[in-house]
């Protein structure tokens, strides 16, 4: 009986985990079915429009606005990846490192680059797979360990041992994990629109409604289909992504 009592907590954790992942995979299937119906509807209305792509030979002029800072590149020795970032403010000032969310890139921080450059060396990074930063093709190259190591290596490459770290959305998750794994690297931590990972995990297990608000996490686990869906109608989905209700984390 005592042995059963000792095993019960672990058994409950296992059961909860199985239920959680069952919900995840079921929801992935539902999302895929819903998006497939949306695709078929779009093809039925106008196949030419559905698969239309506009050639964009030059980036928007706003990305080259000199008031935002200087475009720089750094190649990380261990991973071999080249990272792009925009830097504003004098070298030698305290570093403020900005990590964007999805589906964004360094330009999300344009206002902060202008605002804080008088007091900091402000660096807005294109994370791995975004913007002008290299994008490895294999899924294992985007594990959290890789993303955390990227930030540590970037800091070293910039010649800093610590920084004011600011993250938004997925960048906020990386910021939390950097602060947890390498607290000595973080002078101040500011996270926007992403709760502490432990709080988020516990909350989503206790509140299934949060699973639906965060459904895109799990939809993105399906191979190739999410990328294809985002590309239809000349990537129109990106224009309205920020206003979609499931973007609200709800916490």
UniProtKB/TrEMBL annotation:
<keyword id="KW-1133">Transmembrane helix</keyword>
<feature type="domain" description="AB hydrolase-1">
    <location>
        <begin position="94"/>
        <end position="214"/>
    </location>
</feature>
<dbReference type="InterPro" id="IPR029058">
    <property type="entry name" value="AB_hydrolase_fold"/>
</dbReference>
<keyword id="KW-0812">Transmembrane</keyword>
<feature type="transmembrane region" description="Helical">
    <location>
        <begin position="18"/>
        <end position="37"/>
    </location>
</feature>
<dbReference type="Pfam" id="PF00561">
    <property type="entry name" value="Abhydrolase_1"/>
</dbReference>
<comment type="similarity">
    <text>Belongs to the AB hydrolase superfamily. Epoxide hydrolase family.</text>
</comment>
<keyword id="KW-0472">Membrane</keyword>
<dbReference type="GO" id="GO:0004301">
    <property type="term" value="F:epoxide hydrolase activity"/>
</dbReference>
<keyword id="KW-0378">Hydrolase</keyword>
<protein>
    <submittedName>
        <fullName>Epoxide hydrolase 4 isoform X2</fullName>
    </submittedName>
</protein>
<dbReference type="InterPro" id="IPR000639">
    <property type="entry name" value="Epox_hydrolase-like"/>
</dbReference>
<dbReference type="InterPro" id="IPR000073">
    <property type="entry name" value="AB_hydrolase_1"/>
</dbReference>
């Amino acid at each position: 009986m005592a042995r059963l009592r000792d095993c019960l907590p672990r058994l409950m954790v296992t059961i909860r985990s199985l239920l959680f992942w069952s919900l995840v995979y079921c929801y992935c299937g539902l999302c895929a079915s819903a998006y497939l119906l949306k695709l078929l509807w779009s093809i039925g209305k106008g196949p030419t429009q559905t698969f239309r792509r506009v050639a964009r030979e030059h980036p928007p002029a706003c990305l080259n606005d000199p008031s935002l800072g200087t475009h720089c590149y750094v190649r990380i020795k261990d991973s071999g990846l080249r990272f792009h970032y925009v830097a504003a403010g004098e070298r030698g000032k305290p570093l403020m490192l900005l990590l964007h969310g999805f589906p964004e890139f360094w330009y999300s921080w344009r206002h902060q680059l202008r605002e804080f450059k008088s007091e900091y060396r402000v660096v807005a990074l294109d994370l791995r797979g975004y913007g002008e930063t290299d994008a490895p093709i294999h899924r294992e190259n985007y594990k959290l360990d890789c993303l955390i190591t990227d930030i540590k290596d970037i800091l070293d490459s910039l010649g800093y041992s610590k920084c004011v770290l600011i993250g938004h959305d997925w960048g906020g998750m990386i910021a939390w994990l950097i602060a947890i794994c390498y607290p000595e690297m973080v002078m101040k931590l500011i996270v926007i629109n992403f709760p502490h990972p432990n709080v988020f995990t516990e909350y989503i297990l206790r509140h299934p409604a949060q699973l639906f608000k965060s459904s895109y996490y799990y939809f993105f686990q399906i191979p190739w289909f999410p990328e294809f869906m985002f590309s239809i109608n000349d990537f129109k989905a990106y224009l309205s992504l920020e206003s979609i209700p499931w973007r609200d984390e709800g916490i």
